[in-house]
Write a structure and sequence with these properties.
The protein is built from 14 helices and 25 strands. About 40% of the residues are buried. It binds adenosine-5'-triphosphate and magnesium ion.
Length: about 550
């Protein structure tokens, strides 16, 4: 199922709420935040959240904070903090001076926890994790009170301070809110506020032996920063009563509200940091920036323009019900943007040698090629024609079926920007494979038109043998072969053909010599970008995306 495209781009239920709040003069300024946990690289789902939160701050009087939710030092790393900042900037958003860390609030959160204890609203529980889990009850059965629930304020304070001082081992005790073990909403059954964790934190070092839970840290961080609209994904809807409970019980400086929207799901894609981390750690991909990854780093390396991602998240809109977006929609946005912005070049993916028998040996000539068909300001470049050329293997068939209009014995075709050629002979190797074609050209067709008005049915790309360069071209297909991969057993759904390496491709000299990281169109083939694995002797190009949606057609054919 495809999420309906928002009819009025830029309008959604969250923006409607904000507009209504402004109309009622509830706020002077709208303050949002993007709150990643630095436990992995950002993916395209995050792009939706970033564009929503930062977009709102641009459209309304307001600002958007980048806040790292760094409350679990076991999983968090500086590398992720750095990559997240680079990715948000790459996507085109800026937090200005509003960079924050939940760990900046650890002292205040701790004081407030002592206040909850003092007010009889929190207690230290000595039960094991397993006991806490089993006594929490189920959706149909209430939970059971902990035997430690009625400890005195003094005992709780003493134990909590000793937890903080590092006196107890990991997991020995937790601090829990004292709400209601019979509450219909399981999140209100005495949720954990602090756990003991003797771990080094990237920012606070070894200062803390206890760390706050997400539920406890998140809303209070919002309140400290003066966030007005705390926008998160739907799985937190049932946490909202708890979010509100803390805001009501604590002397927080502002009263934020939480709103939930549907997270992005994409066909053929898994957007879970747990899965993405495993893909990297288990070596299924070459790293977080592997061009097959749905991470922003992967897409950047693959040549996806940030404008295409912004357009994509605008088109899918923001809804309140979960759905799955067809990955074809993302690909469409990438093609649209690259078609508009990228220069045209020629590359031959699987070269087949052609000798023009009636072209004088040793002679060459310069022909003019245009860089962008819709943009004359992109200019032109020269390509060298000569006796020996390469065409695409696919563009020749010795015994063609009826509708094959490209090169075959006796058939005439146009070489782009050059001449009409006709195939006069085929040379094969010992195994019977075609290794070289003998052709003739018509000198009267220079530039690609016959003075006698005769037509050809195909125009093919080509490269001169002497004035082109060997290159490696990497073709990427979907990382998963299953349109809805199983997150709990994703390895079984991996596409064994997700990477195809064409080691003997060729590209124009100018393409090989340029160090530009701008994607280009190789005519008739798709969009390609120079990869960081290039060496001086051999450039490597990644295919960002093909020209047409052949994948969807293959799937439809079954
Ligand atoms: P996981 O991928 O394991 O679910 P996470 O992506 O939720 O983890 P966070 O760093 O907490 O990790 O996410 C930061 C923000 O991005 C959160 O506000 C979260 O709601 C939002 N977000 C995460 N995934 C998506 C998604 N697929 N679509 C939209 N927003 C998302
Ligand atoms: Mg999360």
């Amino acid at each position: 199922m495809t999420e309906p495209v928002a009819t009025e781009v830029g309008r959604d239920f969250i923006r409607d709420i904000i507009q209504a709040d402004l109309d009622q003069a509830k706020y002077q300024e709208i303050v949002t935040r993007f709150p990643p946990e630095p436990n992995g690289y950002l993916h395209i789902g995050h792009a939706k959240s970033i564009a929503l939160n930062f977009g709102i701050a641009q459209e309304f009087p307001g600002r958007c904070h980048l806040r790292f939710d760094d409350t679990n030092p076991v999983k968090e790393e500086q590398e992720y903090i750095d990559s997240i900042q680079a990715d948000v900037r790459w996507l085109g958003f800026d937090w200005g001076k509003n960079l924050f860390f939940a760990s900046d609030y650890f002292d205040r959160l701790y004081e407030w926890a002592e206040k909850l204890i003092g007010d009889g609203l929190a207690y230290v529980d000595d039960q094991t994790q397993e006991e806490i889990r089993t006594s929490r009850g189920t959706l149909t059965e209430p939970g059971k009170n902990s035997p430690f629930r009625d400890r005195s304020v003094d005992e709780n304070l003493d134990l909590f301070r000793r937890m903080k001082a590092g006196e107890f081992p990991n997991g020995a005790r937790v601090l829990r809110a004292k709400i209601d073990m019979g509450a219909g909403n399981i999140n209100l059954r005495d949720p954990v506020l602090y756990r003991i964790l003797h771990a080094h934190h990237p920012r606070t070092g070894t200062k803390w032996s206890i760390y706050p839970s997400y539920d406890y840290a998140h809303g209070q961080s919002d309140a400290i920063e003066g966030i007005t609209h705390s926008i998160c994904t739907l799985e937190f809807e049932d946490h909202r009563p708890l979010y509100d409970w803390f805001i009501e019980k604590l002397p927080v400086p502002s009263k934020p509200h939480q709103y939930e929207f549907a997270r992005l799901n994409l066909t053929y894609t898994l957007l879970s940091k747990r899965v993405l981390t495993q893909l990297v750690r288990e070596g299924h991909v070459a790293g977080w920036d592997d061009p097959r990854m749905p991470t922003m780093a992967g897409m950047r390396r693959r040549g996806v323009p940030p404008a295409a991602l912004r357009e994509f998240v605008k088109r899918i809109g923001v809804a309140k019900a979960n759905s799955v977006v067809d990955v074809g929609m993302l690909e469409f946005c990438i093609r649209e943007e690259l078609n508009r912005t990228s220069q045209r070049r020629m590359g031959v993916l699987r070269p087949l040698k052609v000798v023009i028998e009636n072209y004088p040996e040793g002679q060459t000539e310069e022909l003019e090629a245009i860089n962008h068909p819709d943009d004359p300001s992109a200019g032109t470049r020269k390509i060298t024609f000569g006796r020996e050329l390469y065409i695409e293997q696919d563009d020749f068939m010795e015994n063609p079926p009826k509708k094959f209009f490209r090169l075959s014995p006796g058939n005439e075709v146009r070489l782009r920007y050059a001449y009409f050629i006709k195939c006069t002979g085929v040379i094969k190797n010992d195994s019977g494979e075609v290794v070289e074609l003998r052709c003739t050209y018509d000198p009267a067709t220079k530039g690609g038109n016959a003075p006698d008005g005769r037509k050809v049915k195909a125009t093919m790309h080509w490269l001169p043998a002497a004035n082109s360069v060997p290159a490696e071209i990497r073709i990427y297909n979907q990382l998963f072969a299953n349109p809805s991969p199983d997150a709990s057993n994703f390895a079984a759904d991996l596409n064994p053909q997700s990477l195809e390496i064409l080691a003997d491709a060729r590209v124009e000299v100018s393409v090989a010599e340029s160090n530009s990281t701008e994607p280009m169109q190789f005519e008739r083939q798709g969009y390609f970008v120079r990869d960081k694995d290039s060496t001086p002797g051999k450039p490597v190009f990644s295919r960002t995306i093909g020209l047409r949606d052949t994948f969807a057609k293959e799937v439809a054919k079954g």
